[in-house]
Amino acid sequence: MDKGKNGMRQGEGGVSRERVVPKPRLSGESKLRGLIELLAHIDHVFIQTHNFPDHDAVASAYALKLLLDHFDIQSTIIYQGTIQRDSLKEFIHHLKIPIYNQSEVTLHPHDKILIVDGCKGNKNVTDLIADEAGVIDHHEVVKPESVPWCDIRPELGACCTLVFSYWEETGLSIPREVGTALLVGLLVDTAMMTRGVSREDVSAYSRLYGIAEMQFVNRLLRNNIQEKDLKYFSDAIASLEINGSIGFCYLADGCNQNLLGILGDFFLAIKEIDFVLLCAENNGGINLSMRSENRKWNASVIMQSILEGIGFGGGHGDMAGGIVPHRSEVEPETLRGRLYEACGELSR
To answer: Phi, psi (5° rounding) for residue 292?
Structure first.
């Protein structure tokens, strides 16, 4: 397709400028109203997910894009990194989600960006040349002062729940493809409604269940690994160390970030483990993924403690991620030692 104004692609997303869509009414105190007013005089905005996006990020961006159509605001979904998991590729293909690597579009300093499922200043959100107009996130982050509009709700289990609330506020009928996307993102990020679930997440689940294409949702969520992934399961099991109720696993041969999270959830199924850190060497650095079922051990706090001075990371109380940029500067023993020290301090 040819690129149009501000680098967007003509006709993407299946919604044309000529299509007549109802314009919703918004309450005066609405966060969404503030966003729409901010974008009122902008013809086009880029929706940027965090790098190496997951189901929640892609689904949230997609649902937001289709919602903005109702306000005559065109948008393009972009990301940095790669789409790593085959289930996410199938998800994008099935719902025909128009998402592009940042290298495929042209950005200018005057262009506007909405960051979804991430935040300006986070190391997993590349600072692109365009101007950040807003942030929509559910992680424990510091509100960026330079961004004029932010909606950050760390109490929610998924960013999809946040974007769902926008659709509910407008009173618009949620299309089946949007409901399907939002439900998948919600279920993946909350580990099938077992992790970090709020009342808002439960309400979203209840509403979306009656809208979504459940046969596709169930098949996608059941079949989230492939035969080629079994090697990583084997390596992780062989490398797992258990100290009390803490699991530690270091994969010197590497493993992609999204699969690390799946392995973490797999290890939490072990009765004796309620906290686990997985590390994998990738591209000259070390990716970290953490899961916690122990209320004493906040995963976000511990991740930041482990990476102080050697990397960066964060997340939620029950799940977190991070990266050490330079493998040559850190030994596995350092990460293991910092893990046990951080857990020990929080246990006192």
So the answer is: -135, 135
Please report, for residues 13, 90, 92, 93, 161, the alpha-carbon distance to residue 213 in angstroms, rounded to integers and kept in the order given: 19, 14, 14, 15, 17
DSSP-assigned letters across all residues of 18-67: TS--PPPP--TT-HHHHHHHHHTT-SEEEEEEPSS--HHHHHHHHHHHHH
Rounded CA separation 325/327 (Å):
7
Q: Do strands 74-79 and 131-137 pair parallel, antiparallel, or not at all (unpaired)?
A: unpaired
Instruction: Give 143's DSSP letter.
Output: P
Task: Report d(CA 38, CA 255) in Å as an integer.
Answer: 41
Measured CA to CA, the distance from residue 194 to residue 191 in angstroms comes to: 5
pLDDT (tens, 9 = 90+) of the chain, 348 residues, equals: 344 444 444 344 444 444 445 567 776 678 999 999 999 888 899 999 999 999 999 999 999 999 999 999 999 999 999 998 899 999 999 999 999 999 999 999 999 999 999 999 888 899 999 999 999 999 988 899 999 999 999 999 999 999 999 999 999 999 999 999 999 999 999 999 999 999 999 999 999 999 999 999 999 999 988 999 999 999 999 999 999 999 999 999 999 888 999 999 999 999 999 999 999 999 999 999 999 999 999 999 999 999 999 999 888 899 999 999 999 999 999 999 999 999 987 765
Structural domains of the chain ordered from first start:
5-222 (3.90.1640.10), 227-347 (3.10.310.40)
Q: pTM, whole model, 2 decimals?
A: 0.84
Helix 55-69 / helix 176-189 crossing angle, nearest 10 deg? 150
Residue 161's nearest CA partner among 194, 213, 206 is: 206
3-state helix, strand, coil in the chain (%, to 5): 40, 20, 40
